[in-house]
Amino acid sequence: MEILLFGITRDIAGKPRITVPADTPLATVGDLKTWLGDQYPAIKALSSVAIAVDSEYAEDSQTISSHSEIALIPPVSGG
Amino acid sequence: MLIRIVEHIDLNEAPAYLVSEETGAINLFVGTVRNHSKGKTVLHLDFEAYEPMAVKEMEKLGLQAKVKWPLYEVAIIHAVGHKLPGEPVVVIGVSSAHREASFEACRWLIDELKKTVPIWKKEFYEDNSVWVNAHP
């Protein structure tokens, strides 16, 4: 599973996407957030972190599949 | 609706899209780059977007605004890339029969865009750079 990165999270990881190893037990968006925070503790220091599944904001309880496009959404600052 | 993410904003595009014979009011908000922020000189801003999602979120806001107010049309244009002080980075435009709805909807749209649309800006100062809003 690949996670698209933007803004500060791309700087934190030092790359435009994170590959989640196939044997990582991630069932939900909440599991993914926890895993990302463990891998990159700097993500936990952000004001907020959201996950988008197929370019829609997703709740922590939503299940994820490797067939979806998944993106990490740090605090937005458009406008 | 006119919903776009562009490299360079043409300030004539939204008004040209919104103007019509039945419209009594067109309200336009233009956000531009400031040359200072929190007491520091800003050299430039870099904007990036998760484009497919940003367009989807801007479309949702436009549709919600059209439910909340009696609008004819909505235009939301946001720039990405390297922007210098004075350059426009976002345009919100709405058209309605009367001015109240156009003022209120325009204000609501820019406020909501800043909360939900996945676009990020990095401010570059003389001595460092920072992703805006990233940290508490």
From TrEMBL, chain A:
<dbReference type="InterPro" id="IPR003749">
    <property type="entry name" value="ThiS/MoaD-like"/>
</dbReference>
<dbReference type="GO" id="GO:0006777">
    <property type="term" value="P:Mo-molybdopterin cofactor biosynthetic process"/>
</dbReference>
<dbReference type="InterPro" id="IPR012675">
    <property type="entry name" value="Beta-grasp_dom_sf"/>
</dbReference>
<dbReference type="InterPro" id="IPR044672">
    <property type="entry name" value="MOCS2A"/>
</dbReference>
<protein>
    <recommendedName>
        <fullName>Molybdopterin synthase sulfur carrier subunit</fullName>
    </recommendedName>
</protein>
<dbReference type="GO" id="GO:0000166">
    <property type="term" value="F:nucleotide binding"/>
</dbReference>
<dbReference type="GO" id="GO:1990133">
    <property type="term" value="C:molybdopterin adenylyltransferase complex"/>
</dbReference>
<keyword id="KW-0547">Nucleotide-binding</keyword>
<comment type="similarity">
    <text>Belongs to the MoaD family.</text>
</comment>
<dbReference type="Pfam" id="PF02597">
    <property type="entry name" value="ThiS"/>
</dbReference>
<dbReference type="InterPro" id="IPR016155">
    <property type="entry name" value="Mopterin_synth/thiamin_S_b"/>
</dbReference>
TrEMBL record, chain B:
<dbReference type="GO" id="GO:0006777">
    <property type="term" value="P:Mo-molybdopterin cofactor biosynthetic process"/>
</dbReference>
<comment type="pathway">
    <text>Cofactor biosynthesis; molybdopterin biosynthesis.</text>
</comment>
<keyword id="KW-0501">Molybdenum cofactor biosynthesis</keyword>
<dbReference type="InterPro" id="IPR036563">
    <property type="entry name" value="MoaE_sf"/>
</dbReference>
<dbReference type="GO" id="GO:0030366">
    <property type="term" value="F:molybdopterin synthase activity"/>
</dbReference>
<comment type="subunit">
    <text>Heterotetramer of 2 MoaD subunits and 2 MoaE subunits. Also stable as homodimer. The enzyme changes between these two forms during catalysis.</text>
</comment>
<dbReference type="Pfam" id="PF02391">
    <property type="entry name" value="MoaE"/>
</dbReference>
<protein>
    <recommendedName>
        <fullName>Molybdopterin synthase catalytic subunit</fullName>
        <ecNumber>2.8.1.12</ecNumber>
    </recommendedName>
</protein>
<comment type="similarity">
    <text>Belongs to the MoaE family.</text>
</comment>
<dbReference type="InterPro" id="IPR003448">
    <property type="entry name" value="Mopterin_biosynth_MoaE"/>
</dbReference>
